[in-house]
Amino acid sequence: MSTPIVKTESGPSKPTTTPNVFSTKAASAPSKIPPTSCFQTIVTVEVGAEKKAFLIHKDLLIFYSDYFRGAFDGSFSEAAKGKLFLVDERVNVFSIVNQFVYTRELSDKDNYELDWDVLIRAWIFGDKYLMPSLQNKVMTTLIEKHTRDNFLPTLQFKLIWNNTLPGSPLRKVMVDLVAYKCDLGPFLSMDGGQRWPHEALIELLTVVGAKRKEDIGKRALPESNMGKCHYHIHADGEKCDTKL
User: Fold this and answer.
1) For residue 57, what are the β-bridge partners?
2) I need a surface site. Which of 79, 116, 132, 183 has the fewest CB within 10 A?
3) What string of DSSP letters covers 147-160?
4) Helices in 76-195 by DSSP H: which ranges?
């Protein structure tokens, strides 16, 4: 990921990333824990049209996000005022982000499990605002949720493809789970394939066409895709050690 141009009202409209490995100062591995020095200066982030105000430790945001590093440590007005406006973001999504930077866990303010839609929106938020640790936590949660519920969020496929670039780990995991773990005929005929963006269908057919002979007929991801980091985004040299 490259350092973004700070937009005070809505942030970057599209991610401009090379997925999986990139140069960053933001934490991207679970072993990276914020030092006590992160809990000093408070800043305000106003979210949504309703301008919901969140009071957050500045250096905690910077620890997890290169975007917020640029906003609060640069020469922009946000740094001087200690206030940032994210008018195009959803309050419920930023509430999850707020919880994550303090607890490194994913839950809403009432500690309920998150649904597919809000998890996917949280991953997209992490992509826009350069928060790899958030993206990786969401990714692991999405895969665990799929494994437990035997379900894929097809209603959110258009949301995913409209807000990510080719090669995005979020696209890749959805395509791989369909290609390797689903019966394609019934899966695509549920609604005549209307839930699938055109790009997604092309990416799916590309993966299906490239399947190795030994993977045909199995209902499992290939062994090469089973490392926890396969769908994660990390700084060069960082990784998680366990399998999915």
Assistant:
1) 42
2) 183
3) HHHT---GGGHHHH
4) 77-81, 91-103, 116-128, 132-149, 157-162, 169-181, 184-189
Q: What is the CA radius of gyration of the chain?
A: 19
* 21-235 CATH pick, 1.25.40.10, 1.10.3720.10, 3.30.710.10, 3.20.20.70: 3.30.710.10
Strand 83-86 relative to strand 234-235, pairing: unpaired
Distances (CA, A) of 128 to 68, 80, 131: 11, 23, 8
Q: Is 13 left (phi over 0), alpha (psi -120 to 50) or beta?
A: alpha
Report d(CA 18, CA 15) in Å as an integer.
Answer: 9
Give 227's strand partners.
Answer: 243
Using CA atoms, how far residue 45 sits from 64, 94, 115, 138, in Å, is 15, 9, 24, 22
User: pLDDT tens digit string along 184-208?
Assistant: 777 677 665 677 899 999 999 999 8
Strands, E assignment, 17-101? 21-22, 42-47, 52-57, 83-86
Model pLDDT, residue 192: 56
Residue 84 phi/psi, 5-degree rounding, is -130, 140
Torsion sign over Cα 134, 138, 139, 141? positive
Q: Cα 185–164–24 angle (5° rounding)?
A: 135
- pLDDT reported for residue 10: 41
The pLDDT of residue 218 is 75
